[in-house]
Amino acid sequence: MLESQRGEKCDMMVLHKLAVVIVSLMLIYDFYNTSTPLEIRVQNPKFALLGPYNGTEFSAPDDVYEQLIDLKNFSFKVNPQPCQNYSAGLLLVVIISSNPSNYDNRMVIRNTWGRSLDSTKVVFLIGESENPTISHRIQNESALFGDIVQGSFTDAYRNMTYKHVMGLKWVTHHCPMAKYILKTDDDVVVNSYALRQFLARELSPWGAKGLITCQVLEHAQVQRSHRSKWRVSPAEYGPHYYPTYCAGWAIIYSQDVVPRLLKTAQFTPYFWIDDVHVTGVVAQEIGVARTPLASLILSRNRAKVLTSMGADYAGQFLFGPPDISVNKISQIWKAIPE
Ligand SMILES: *[C@@H]1O[C@H](CO)[C@@H](O)[C@H](O)[C@H]1NC(C)=O
Ligand SMILES: *[C@@H]1O[C@H](CO)[C@@H](O)[C@H](O)[C@H]1NC(C)=O
Ligand SMILES: *[C@@H]1O[C@H](CO)[C@@H](O)[C@H](O)[C@H]1NC(C)=O
Ligand SMILES: *[C@@H]1O[C@H](CO)[C@@H](O)[C@H](O)[C@H]1NC(C)=O
Ligand SMILES: *[C@@H]1O[C@H](CO)[C@@H](O)[C@H](O)[C@H]1NC(C)=O
Q1: Residue identifier of the C-alpha nearest atom 11 of ligand 2
Q2: Residue 75 Cα to ligand 5 middle (Å)
Q3: Got the DSSP string for 283-302?
Q4: Is the model's pTM score more than 0.85?
Q5: Sheet architecture: strand order including 178-185
Q6: Residue nearest to atom 1 of ligand 4 (CA)
Q7: Which one of 49, 211, 257 would you pick to mutate in the ligand 1 pocket, going by the greatest count of ligand atoms within 8 A of its CB?
Q8: pLDDT value at 312 more than 60
Q9: What does residue 52 show for φ and ψ, rounded to 5 degrees?
Q10: What is the pLDDT of residues 224-261, one digit of tens each?
Q11: pLDDT, position 14
């Protein structure tokens, strides 16, 4: 063997060892960060599981259709009805907050985890774009896929609470038969197979009552620094800490919770950070506990393990890390076994 070849082989072995050490450290780090029991029932029994004879009672929605918090002339500009043939109920509806210009994100979701599955419906929530080209594209896209719910408010960062509450309104009026509702964002991977298993087996195919489950954030400090993207002035929100709330990129609601959140959100003064507002302030007001999903959330490190080493090493999870690129969504999705 030539000297140079031997040197190369040696380098490869060192690299390989280094990789093993790094991955091991990542796993250990993650274990200490997320090692909580898988059984969410054990952790927090503040919700109830339903059986075949005690589902949610339906009544006409107690909500003013043309009102969205302080917008008195609200309407759905685009309003598909994917749930209309499911009067007997469907397992899951997924509502995805999306930016009008994120066509690529919606496309990758449609082709990966949001692909049509039995008893599951997926819609994207958007506002109105001020850019006429994008508005046209949205019309096109919506005609083609029929999965866009558009509300009559300007799509803007500080309007994301309108978007979230619009999702609650849409579910309440147009998809009340869904047993579970997942609110997520357009830059997230959802392990849709595992999620359906989790809902129908770990929880109950008939649904649950009083359930809000997510990555729970506690004692979060209000950001006052002018450099922060999340800066909030004392006039917008007085206290130094937020109430316990759910990270907004993946929240599971049970059927009964959505109209109750909507009803209270309609009369609660607007606050623009939607997850704090809906799953913190409003959820506290209606007295529904937030149940942590803990290790069922895929951290960035575990996502790396999943894509580099395979699903067996990454463990069970329901949704992937937030804020990821379109390519990363495809890459993680490919690593998930069916
Ligand atoms: C609903 O019924 C199931 C059995 O069918 C029972 O285990 C569960 O506790 C009941 N839940 C409520 C909220 O009554
Ligand atoms: C409400 O909105 C509709 C269309 O979105 C518009 O035609 C109507 O003039 C508006 N009414 C008021 C009072 O602003
Ligand atoms: C519901 O069923 C009717 C009749 O079968 C059909 O025409 C319609 O397209 C269906 N709607 C949806 C959203 O699947
Ligand atoms: C809308 O779709 C049509 C074909 O389906 C295409 O020719 C047109 O360019 C599209 N418009 C926009 C604004 O994307
Ligand atoms: C939010 O939407 C409302 C209603 O369309 C609009 O008046 C307001 O300017 C929007 N906010 C921002 C920050 O664009």
Answers
A1: 73
A2: 14
A3: HHHHT--EEE-GGGBPPHHH
A4: yes
A5: 76-78, 148-154, 120-128, 90-97, 178-185, 245-254, 212-217, 290-292
A6: 140
A7: 49
A8: yes
A9: -65, -20
A10: 999 998 999 999 999 999 999 999 999 999 999 999 99
A11: 74
Distance in angstroms (rounded) separating the CA atoms of residues 133 and 249: 28
The model's confidence at residue 35, banded by pLDDT at 50, 70 and 90, is very low
d(CA 318, CA 98): 20
| pLDDT at position 87 | 87
d(CA 327, CA 104): 10
Q: Residue 74: nearest ligand to its CA?
A: 2
126, 186 Cβ separation under 8 angstroms:
no
Our mutation pick for probing the ligand 1 site, out of 50, 203, 257, counting the most ligand atoms within 8 A of Cβ, is 50
C-beta 140 within 6 A of ligand 4:
yes
How many C-beta atoms surround the C-beta of residue 194 within 10 A? 17
Neighbours of 313 (CB within 10 A): 12
Distance spanning both ends of the chain, measured CA to CA: 45
C-alpha 295/C-alpha 124 separation (Å) is 27
The mean pLDDT of 64-81, rounded to a whole number, is 97
CATH entry 3.40.1110.10 includes domain 48-335: no
Q: Residue 267, SS3?
A: coil
Compute the Cα dihedral for 168, 93, 107, 215 and give only its sign: positive
The whole-number average pLDDT for the span 277-302 is 93
User: How does DSSP classify residue 79?
Assistant: -
Are 62 and 263 spatial neighbours (Cβ–Cβ below 8 Å)? yes
